[in-house]
């Protein structure tokens, strides 16, 4: 029976181009011919630890070549890879570990001793560390092993990864992604974006979410393309590396900051055939300014953690500011009203999708999974959209109160539940407001009880050990009351309208 393991698809490609360079970073390089042996070491490690197919491996480490190898090794072995943002606090990590119950947790060397009591508390058997400088207890362990030749046999619906997304109720949801989900999406993008044999990807994204890990690296792996693997985004560095690259994938913040970078100009972009933007809405003014400076139109696309990429502006064809383009091949979609009935062309409704890229559900949440799917199998994205007479889709807002700041998904309820526990706070309301750099920024509106003198410092001090920094409000607004409808529900749309220019 044919092995549907995603790793075997990568393996088939890189064994044919073994002499090519895959990753080039400030800390080392990785050739395609080294992947098989290096992942074989991790496979031997998994076997020694008693890990089996379907076990979870939770990883909270900095971006590195070794972290990519760990991901590929999990695919190869049939373990379920769960990446976490390194910015997550101890309390946040505790939830993820308790929910996923991994057979192995890998953290940074600096966090290993801090995490040890936590892993004991939640009954996690194995804890190792991995640093971006090829250091950590995992690296030392690998030095004692010989590489295995083993590759796990997988079916289409075997889980490859779980990615946690913030929940509207404050509880994060683990989106389960199968080998088929990931492969189908990668093959789609490889073709739709016309990847070429000599492409070089400039990679400045983190690798703990879909964009940097799956969209970017999967395309490069299937195309056997070189990846310039930067630790993080730095506008000056990216500007200077563009001459060595042909493809850049970024969030809108990348392009905003590049336009402000003094060294960035049209000549720097001459070698790049494709600039892609995603993970958050690209402002039309950014799209226009970038085209005026560089002569190139950014290709905006749209996707979700649960589905991978769903739509894209065309590679050959008109890319329109404010539009996310057309449904990708094999992706079915419809725009419906609250009852699930299709709306007429041009009318705003909720986008629902189906296809081989759509996830099977949320980890340990059968009821939530059932809520998010229609009886015909379509997934309810929760994003408000409309389409024109050619099928081109524009996303106009979100049914839910998701905030996308700098490419990161943030749900207000999670922040509000922590703010409301601060002494002196009666109620809080978290909204997203326009921000020139991040696209949207978190802003908290606070109602106090006058028992103590509330201040921005007091509020931030009350949340900083409980929430990752990117979730911290960029501004605190103290108010006497919140606008409500006749049913008593806070009208966040009125707050967003009232304070729309607050951060400008």
List keywords for this structure.
single chain, 504 residues, alpha/beta, Rossmann fold, GMP Synthetase, Chain A, domain 3, 4-stranded parallel β-sheet, globular
CATH architecture of the domain at 6-154: 3-Layer(aba) Sandwich
Q: Roughly what is the average pLDDT, rounded to an integer? A: 94
CATH topology of the domain at 6-154: Rossmann fold
Structure classification = alpha/beta
Estimate the helix proportion, in percent: 25-40%
User: What would you report as the Rg, rounded to the nearest angstrom?
Assistant: 23 Å
State the major sheet: 9 strands, mixed
Biggest sheet strand line-up: 2-1-10-9-11-12-13-14-15
CATH class of the domain at 6-154: Alpha Beta
Q: Report the principal-axis shape.
A: globular
- Spans of at least 5 consecutive residues whose pLDDT stays below 50 are none
Number of helices: 15
Distance between the termini: 59 Å
Strand content: 25-35%
How many strand elements? 25
Summary, kept brief:
By secondary structure, this protein is an alpha/beta fold.
